[in-house]
């Protein structure tokens, strides 16, 4: 039973990675058209928290990071981002902060402040308390 | 004003319970004692202390009392404590006389509740078990029956369905479970209804797997049709049609997590917790639950910080320094938060009148040592849900 599950998981992982590659190309073109908010939305959409495969998580983090670093206008981002994305964005901000990379952390802290104002402490709690659906 | 009485009884209160006529309140001031106060001429005075020196030295609690419940009809108090024991206290003359209940636990007892018929009580514990206790006439003794399996962590709260059989529990493993507690000789066949109709003691009816973090504060609606509980991830869960295919709703809110909830009607729930201010949740005509508003006066927002809560000082410091490089005293560390409770609220109880299922008054207690009585009268925007 365990081995079949593992196989399905690996099969899924390939499919997910292909999807992320698609997303990556779309994000690049959106960034070229200077639509960073659209790019971030695309990156957050269909992010794979349910899978346990670290490769998928890392692959998606790379595309989210790419879109995240392109954000200049944080207020503008948050007012055009639907509330349903707040929790997942917060998770990626904490992933960014955990890298320890100076420019990434600066950017993540900047967004974190504005996101907390908007989404409240509950958003942080949901992100920290969820040890199952990690990004 | 929704808070009609604020009483500072102690430094910190772990739990409280009301006498049947609401003239007396029993609470644990964060130690091994239970204090009972009575209201006489607008002043609360201490009338009893349920603790070891009043009675037999060995018999009473020697650790924190974690749960108190006062039965409304039979006027008995049951207490549960971290010392792994429970006592049922009977008023004989002017003295409260305890009866030890050996729960057979190897970890702390965390919560206790009388069943609706008051012939059983349930204790949740840190030993991943629930004890259902009942009185055995022939032995003059409270017997504890254990539900050992199923829970993967501490049982944080228990709630009885109005049918006296179903028991809901929440656990630190994040799950909410519903068990049958049918005990031969205590319960009668005809009292069994609905999904529990053919289940034995300890049988699990359903396991609700909605939360990914600790679950707390489970409660049934007055009719027993809806169940509510909270997760430590700032979520509250509402479950209808308890049975093989339950209907669940997850409601996320923007503030700190809740610890306990109370149904004031079928369509309105009050949640209390780390935000120090009761929150109102209600269901619209389609049965969709959502956060309505805070019950207390909205907290005054001080200039030093944008976050009106316990974390505000730390947050203020973090952002204050990162933005302007200011020193710590930019944020006053000891400002009043302006709410009625100053610390986490961990207990909410109805002050219901007999025969009326809608709760107009309720009380809250918390780590700030206050017992606050709230009234929902004259809340125009909430009256449609009552």
UniProtKB/TrEMBL annotation, chain A:
It comes from Castanea mollissima. GO terms for cellular component: Arp2/3 protein complex; cell projection. Transmembrane segments: none annotated. Functions as component of the Arp2/3 complex which is involved in regulation of actin polymerization and together with an activating nucleation-promoting factor (NPF) mediates the formation of branched actin networks. Arp2/3 complex plays a critical role in the control of cell morphogenesis via the modulation of cell polarity development. Functions as a component of the Arp2/3 complex which is involved in regulation of actin polymerization and together with an activating nucleation-promoting factor (NPF) mediates the formation of branched actin networks. Arp2/3 complex plays a critical role in the control of cell morphogenesis via the modulation of cell polarity development. It is found in: Cell projection; Cytoplasm, Cytoskeleton. Belongs to the ARPC5 family. The keyword Flavoprotein does not apply. InterPro entries: ARPC5 (IPR006789), ARPC5_sf (IPR036743). Signal peptide: none annotated. Its main location: other. The keyword Lipid biosynthesis does not apply. One of its GO terms (biological process) is Arp2/3 complex-mediated actin nucleation. Gene3D superfamilies: Actin-related protein 2/3 complex subunit 5. This is Actin-related protein 2/3 complex subunit 5. Component of the Arp2/3 complex composed of ARP2, ARP3, ARPC1/p41-ARC, ARPC2/p34-ARC, ARPC3/p21-ARC, ARPC4/p20-ARC and ARPC5/p16-ARC. Keywords: Cell projection, Cytoplasm, Cytoskeleton.
TrEMBL record, chain B:
GO terms for molecular function: actin filament binding. PROSITE patterns: WD_REPEATS_1, WD_REPEATS_2, WD_REPEATS_REGION. It comes from Lithocarpus litseifolius. This is Actin-related protein 2/3 complex subunit. Belongs to the WD repeat ARPC1 family. Functions as component of the Arp2/3 complex which is involved in regulation of actin polymerization and together with an activating nucleation-promoting factor (NPF) mediates the formation of branched actin networks. Its main location: cytoplasm. Keywords: Actin-binding, Cytoplasm, Cytoskeleton, Repeat, WD repeat. WD repeats lie at residues 58-99, 148-180. Component of the Arp2/3 complex composed of ARP2, ARP3, ARPC1/p41-ARC, ARPC2/p34-ARC, ARPC3/p21-ARC, ARPC4/p20-ARC and ARPC5/p16-ARC. The keyword Cytoplasm applies. It is found in: Cytoplasm, Cytoskeleton. One of its GO terms (biological process) is Arp2/3 complex-mediated actin nucleation.
């Amino acid at each position: 039973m365990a081995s079949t599950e593992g196989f399905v998981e690996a099969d899924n992982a390939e499919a997910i990675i292909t999807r992320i590659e698609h997303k990556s190309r779309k994000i690049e073109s959106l960034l070229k058209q200077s639509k960073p908010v659209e790019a971030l939305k695309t990156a957050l959409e269909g992010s794979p928290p349910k899978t346990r495969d670290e490769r998928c998580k890392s692959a998606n983090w790379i595309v989210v990071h790419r879109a995240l670093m392109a954000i200049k206008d944080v207020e503008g981002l948050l007012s055009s981002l639907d509330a349903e994305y707040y929790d997942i964005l917060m998770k990626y901000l904490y992933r960014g902060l955990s890298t320890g990379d100076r420019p990434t952390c600066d950017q993540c802290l900047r967004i974190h402040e504005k996101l907390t104002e908007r989404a409240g402490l509950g958003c942080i709690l949901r992100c920290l308390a969820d040890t199952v659906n990690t990004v | 004003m929704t808070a009609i009485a604020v009483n500072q009884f102690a430094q910190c209160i772990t739990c409280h319970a009301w006498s049947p006529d609401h003239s007396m309140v029993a609470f644990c001031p964060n130690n091994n004692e239970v204090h009972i106060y009575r209201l006489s001429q607008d002043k609360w005075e201490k009338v009893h202390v349920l603790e070891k020196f009043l009675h037999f030295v060995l018999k009473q609690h020697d650790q924190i009392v974690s749960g108190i419940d006062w039965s409304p009809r039979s006027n008995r108090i049951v207490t549960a404590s971290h010392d792994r024991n429970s006592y049922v206290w009977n008023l004989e003359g002017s003295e409260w006389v305890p009866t030890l209940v050996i729960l057979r636990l190897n970890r702390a007892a965390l919560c206790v509740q009388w069943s609706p018929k008051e012939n059983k009580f349930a204790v949740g514990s840190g030993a991943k078990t629930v004890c259902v206790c009942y009185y055995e006439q022939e032995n003059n003794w409270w017997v504890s029956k254990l539900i050992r399996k199923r829970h993967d962590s501490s049982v944080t709260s228990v709630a009885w369905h109005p049918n006296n059989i179903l028991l809901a529990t929440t656990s630190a493993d994040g799950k909410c479970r519903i068990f049958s507690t049918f005990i031969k000789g205590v319960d009668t066949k005809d009292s069994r209804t609905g999904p529990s109709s053919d289940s034995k003691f300890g049988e699990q009816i359903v396991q609700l797997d909605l939360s990914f973090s600790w679950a707390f504060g489970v409660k049934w609606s007055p009719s027993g049709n809806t169940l509510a509980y909270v997760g430590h991830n700032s979520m509250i869960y509402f479950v209808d049609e308890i049975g093989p295919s339950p209907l669940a709703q997850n409601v996320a809110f923007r503030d700190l997590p809740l610890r306990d909830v109370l149904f004031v009607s079928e369509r309105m729930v009050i949640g209390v917790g780390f935000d120090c201010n009761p929150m109102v949740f209600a269901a619209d005509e389609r049965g969709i639950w959502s956060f309505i508003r805070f019950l207390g006066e909205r907290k005054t927002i001080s200039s030093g910080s944008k976050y009106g809560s316990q974390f505000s000082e730390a947050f203020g410091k973090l952002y204050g320094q990162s933005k302007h490089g200011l020193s710590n005293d930019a944020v006053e560390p000891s400002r009043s938060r302006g709410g009625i409770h100053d610390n986490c609220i961990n207990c909410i109880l109805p002050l219901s009148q007999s025969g009326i299922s809608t709760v107009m008054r309720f009380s809250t207690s918390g780590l700030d040592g206050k017992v606050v009585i709230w009234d929902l009268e004259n809340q125009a925007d909430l009256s449609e849900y009552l």
